[in-house]
Design a protein that fits this description.
Blueprint lengths: L6 H18 L14 H18 L8 H12 L10 H4 L1 H13 L12
């Protein structure tokens, strides 16, 4: 059985991947921007994103799927920015709740197809 993402889920997921590229690529000893992700990492990322989004979508203001995809990556990996830093976007209650939910997913390290 194949599960298709909705438009909002795809937006969230693609933004999550963009955030990974932003923080994990392009510097010395890092893969180049746009490097292909390992298929297993990509699948696990999709599962994480869908699970997280399913829980938080009711707290997410309309039209913020892209921002939330970025903030899920930034928050879960402690990049110094994320849901907690944006109560003006998500609301005080929601930014704290989204932070706790994202942190519960734990830190994850990307795996790229051809980078050793």
């Amino acid at each position: 059985m194949k599960i298709e993402m909705t438009k909002k889920e795809k937006t969230f997921f693609n933004a999550y991947l963009e955030a990974i590229d932003f923080t994990e690529c392009g510097d010395i000893d890092q893969p180049a921007h746009g490097e292909e992700f390992d298929s297993h990492f990509l699948r696990e990322s999709a599962i994480d994103c869908l699970a997280f989004y399913a829980v938080i979508q009711c707290y997410l203001p309309a039209g913020l799927e892209e921002q939330a995809g970025h903030d899920f990556w930034f928050t879960r990996n402690g990049h110094g920015v994320g849901f907690w830093a944006k109560p003006e976007i998500y609301g005080e209650y929601s930014s704290n709740l989204l932070t706790r939910k994202a942190e519960a997913f734990g830190e994850v390290f990307p795996v790229f197809e051809n980078h050793v």
